[in-house]
Each structure stands twice: as structure tokens, then as C-alpha cells.
Automatic annotation (TrEMBL), chains A, B:
One of its GO terms (biological process) is terpenoid biosynthetic process. Signal peptide: none annotated. Its cofactor is Mg(2+). This is Probable farnesyl diphosphate synthase. Belongs to the FPP/GGPP synthase family. It comes from the Bacteria. InterPro entries: Isoprenoid_synthase_dom_sf (IPR008949), Polyprenyl_synt (IPR000092), Polyprenyl_synt_CS (IPR033749). Keywords: Isoprene biosynthesis, Magnesium, Metal-binding, Transferase. Gene3D superfamilies: Farnesyl Diphosphate Synthase. The lineage of its organism: Bacteria, Pseudomonadati, Pseudomonadota, Alphaproteobacteria, Hyphomicrobiales. It holds the Pfam family polyprenyl_synt. One of its GO terms (molecular function) is prenyltransferase activity.
Amino acid sequence: MQVLYAQPTLVEDLRSAVNARLDTLVPVGHRGPQRVNEAVRYALLAPGKRIRPLLTLLAAVDFGAAVGDALDVACATEMVHTASLVLDDLPSMDDARLRRGQPTVHVQYGESTAILAAVALLNQAFATVTRAGRLPCETRLALVERLSAAIGFDGLVTGQENDLQDRGATSTVARLESLNHQKTSVLFEAALEIGARVAGAADRSIDELRQVAAHLGLAYQIADDLFDVSLATGPQSKDLLKDANKPTVVSLLGAERARERFGHHLAEALKLLPARGTGGTPLRDYIMVTFAQTRLC
Amino acid sequence: MQVLYAQPTLVEDLRSAVNARLDTLVPVGHRGPQRVNEAVRYALLAPGKRIRPLLTLLAAVDFGAAVGDALDVACATEMVHTASLVLDDLPSMDDARLRRGQPTVHVQYGESTAILAAVALLNQAFATVTRAGRLPCETRLALVERLSAAIGFDGLVTGQENDLQDRGATSTVARLESLNHQKTSVLFEAALEIGARVAGAADRSIDELRQVAAHLGLAYQIADDLFDVSLATGPQSKDLLKDANKPTVVSLLGAERARERFGHHLAEALKLLPARGTGGTPLRDYIMVTFAQTRLC
């Protein structure tokens, strides 16, 4: 597959802006107890691809908003994502010991502090959207609601519960993809929609972005599974053993057909994304580059 | 102490309204996975005194708002409180087996489902405030922020972390009361302030309510500890052993001086609460009745 390194500077600049802003939004020595504060920063500021906040920012840019208007709400999506990782890794869930190249939060700080850090992160995500002062009141309220929809009964909570309860029994690609949708696509959806709403995009465009997100989430999970399988040697950045006994699209279809399915979902997502003349848009280019790589972390 | 059963009908009516509304806000068969949905309802709808939503509703009524305007945001405070109980009871925290007269959520549904249920409850609290359509946008946004302040680095997360990390070493009444403030007063504060803000109360009144809440939280914790100590026989509604090795105001001062201190905090709270002519207000009467009893659950 041809990989276009279009506008790497823009993406790098945005990723740096996200990292810098996250650092500010959860400052050192926040008035809370140092241990939870440290654990939150440990989880949130560890090296990550920042895919969700980049989706928010690039969607905002694509639809004509200023980066600064979307930066805080973009950071909120990363807080939610990080909270979900901290929870998923817990001993009572996936019991993972390695994440983003470092010991998981509960290994480093203990289980109770990890749980409280996840709660603090979710809470900080809502606080951050609420305080995004550049946005009108109605927009902020809509984005709080959008974020809560991605987390709650129809979102990540569902995905994680189904993953824990039903995954072992999941033996069809359709059911696995429904699970992957709940675990991954819902936050991609929210991230893209939040960016588009900051820019005041039309409802029709937002419907299209939802379909883009659905395909991206499924492509992402397959790439993630392909990466796990192909990583026979070399330094590990996350705990692979935890997923060893779970069925995946790769274990059900084999690597080659899974790779085809990945290509299908990526192509469908790109087809739905508006191009600009013969070139792409920043969002389209970013997705091509990022999702064409298998090392997604 | 003289106990006034003033306006029992109003309080009972409000409690019933809260229970009925909570049931609606987290409906059976919510689209999410049944197990988390069930666990949330199990925790939230178990018999509770509903102190926090009653504080919200009575503060709202005291300052002239309609009950209906404050009902949803009152329910949100109960969701936050219930989430904090579910988390506090976890094996990695207080490891309690009994709460509100029934097995704790993790005993009944497993640890991972209990954690996800707590996350779903916190999330639903934010969603509920966001959707409280009778309130202006600015008010809803302010209340989301107020709720997040009660949960996060300056709120319940702090309280629980400090309780777990420092409680064993806490040997002065001043430090214990600071801890009790973080664990209890912060949500009382938020509950009262939220009710007052719904009614458009002045900032000065809200400052006074904060002081009321601070005293109430401390009184409440002492009463709770006195109740634990005095409960030698009879049916238990919560797990008392979990607190057996923790220092409390009662273990530091003895029951009699603790009872005096309880009386002091309650009197200070009542002194700050506006009376109406020679009688009380609904809020003042409720606090007198509720906090003069030791069985607070």
C-alpha cells in the first residue's frame, strides 16, 4: 500500500500541542493527593500516538475551525481514552502489566490508586470540556453529552463489559466486529464528531464522519491484532499475553484475510472522507498515513 | 436532644420523588449490557436515606425554586454518592461485603462489573445534569463543573486516596476532620450549592451553605462512627469490620466527647441556616431531624 507522508509537520505540530496542553490540564502538584496526581500524569503523559485528539483537531481543521478552539476538547478525548486503558489493564479486567512501554498504572501505583486515577481522568475530561471557554455554552453542553454517550451504557462501559463477559464465546467475525465497534469505534466517533461540532459542521457531514469512525475502529482493531501476532521479537510496548486466549479477527480468519478486511475498512473510511480537488484534506492524509501502518500502539 | 419531626410529609414526598426519578434515569434494559445495567440499578435503587438529593431539593425549595427544576440534578448527586460507595467497597479499597443491607456490588456482580458500574454511574450523573432541560444552559454548565469539582482532585478522589494512604497514620482530631471533610463534606457542599444555584441564590448565601455543609459532613462522620461503635447486636446494614482498625474521632476522643463534638458541629450548621420567623425552613427542619438521629446509614 502506498503511504503518503502528507503534511507531517501539521500532524507533528498538533501532536506537540496536545502533549503540551495535556501537561497543563493536569499540572504537577495539583491540589489533590500527590499519589493520584502522579498516577494520572504517569498514565496520561506516557508516549502515545494521540490518535483520538488528532482526529478531533483534524476534523475541526477540515471543517474550518481554529486549532485553538478544539484543543481542549481534543485533550478531553485523550483523557477518556487513557482512563479506559487504565481500567482495562486492571487485575480484575485484562490484568496487563505493560502499557505504552512502561508498567501499567496499577503495577506502578497499586490497584486502588489506579482506579481513582481513572475516575480522576474521566472527571477531568468533563471538567475540561465544561471550561473550554472559547466555545459557546450550547456547544460545550452538547460536547459533554457527546462524551458521556461515548463512555456510558452505549459506549466504552458496554464494550469493556461485553469484552470481559462474552469475548471467549465470540466465534463469528460479525460478533467480534460488533464488540470492536463498542470498544474502539465509539470513541473515534465521538472524537471526530466533537471536532466537527466545534467547527459547526452540518448534521449530514457528522453522519458521514460516524460511518468513517465505524470503519476506522474496525480497521484499527484488526491492525492492532495483526501487530500483536507479528511481534515475535523486539521490545514490547504493551502486554501481549493478556490477549493470547481471546479470539480476534486474525485468529478467526488468518492473517492474510484479516489484512484484506483491514484494507476494506480503511478504503471504505477513505471513500467517505471528503477530498479536496485531487489532493486530500489534513484529516484524510493523517488517516491514510496512520492507519496504513501496523504499529499503532 | 429534642427531635422535631417537622414537615415529615414534604421530606417523604421528596424522597419518593427522588426514588421514582432515579428509577427512570437508569431504566431497566437500558441499551447497554444487562449485567452493568443491573449492577447500577442494584446499587442505586437499594434503600438509602437520599441525604444528598434531599439537601439539593430542600436548598432549592428554601431559596424559592420549584422541586421539578431541581429533581434531576438532585438525582445526579445521589449517583455520584452511590458510585463513591461502590468504589470505596472494592477489594482493593475497604473490601466491604455489606452495604445498604445487601451484599456489596462486587460481591454480587464481580469486581470488574462493579468498577464499570461505578464509572457508568458517574457518567450518568454528568449526562443527567447536562440534560436537565428545565435549567438554562449556563446553569447546567456551572452545575456540571460544580459536580466535577466535588469528585476530582479537590474532592472525593482526594478523600478516598488519603483515607487509604494516610488514615492509619492519622492520630489527631484535626487531621481526621480534614479527611472527613474530603470524604463527606465536599459532596454535601456540592449538593447544597447545586440546589441553591438552581434557585438563583446569591453568592453570599452559597458561601454560608458551604460552611453549613462543612459542619454537617463532620457531624455526619462522627454520628456514623458512633453508630458503628454502638451497634453491638442487631441486623447490620453495612460492613462494620472494615473500619475496625481505622482511627476515628470516636476512637481518639471516646464516645462522650465525640458526641459533644457532633453536637457542636450540628449546632454550628443550624446557626448558619436561615430560620423563617420563629419556625425553621424545610431544609433546617430536615437537618435537625436527620442529623439528630444516629442511625444515618
